[in-house]
Structure formats: structure tokens, C-alpha cells
Amino acid sequence: xxxxxxEQVLISGYYxxxxxxxxxILQAVILAxxxxxxxxxxxxxxxxxxxxxEQYGGNYNIEAIPRTSLFRIISTMKKCRAVLSxxxxxxxDSTGWRSxxxxxxxxxxxxxxxxxxxxxxxxxxxxxxIPARSFVxxx
Length: 139
What we know:
The protein is an alpha/beta fold. It has 5 helices and 5 strands; from the N terminus they run βαβαβαβαβα.
């Protein structure tokens, strides 16, 4: 019997907010996964799941999940082969501290559930706060 983790990847990033650069990164990730593994299911954390599914789901096997739904995130992670944190300047605290803890917290959760973790096109910094710097380093 196949391992259910082998069929799905969870993708997190600043998706569903309408930011052109972040959406372009997501599109590149989707196209790359589709080329490498066309039957792979992709779960994408999004601020606007309906729009994300509408925009990308037509030609690809995509499920968009509300990025604030901890229950859905955890239940999806438990089934995933990997969690990819993708794109842009997510790991910085110059615009606020929450971004660092959200994205690093997702990766930490993924590790706790035994998922492989990846980062793609991810900038790090500036990290002005010592707690944020320490948390990123620990993950």
C-alpha cells in the first residue's frame, strides 16, 4: 500500500493577497511541480482560497486552504510528503514580528509531523530582534 505522504506537498507563502511578485513565484512553483510530478497534489495556503483555486486549479491538482485555519493546516500536514515555504521576503521583522513566527512556525510544525521541509526563493532578513533571529536559527 502506498504511503499517503507521497502524494501531496503543502506550499506556504504570501499567496492570495494579490501581490504580483508572490503570485508569480507560486505560479513558477506550480509549473515546476507539474512538470516533475504531474500527479502530485498541491495544497496551497492562501489568504483567498477561492481565488487561488480559481486562478491555478483549472489545469493542476490544487487545493487552497485558508492560511489562518490551524486545524486544516495540521490535518493537511499530516498527509503531506513535504512542506515548501516559498517566495520573497517572508523572513524579516522590519514590517512586523508576526511574519517570522508564522512562516518559521509552519516549518517547525512540519518537522514535528515528519514532513520534509524546503525553502524556495526565500530571502532572510533583516532580522532586527534577537528573539526572531534566534527562532529562525533554531528552525
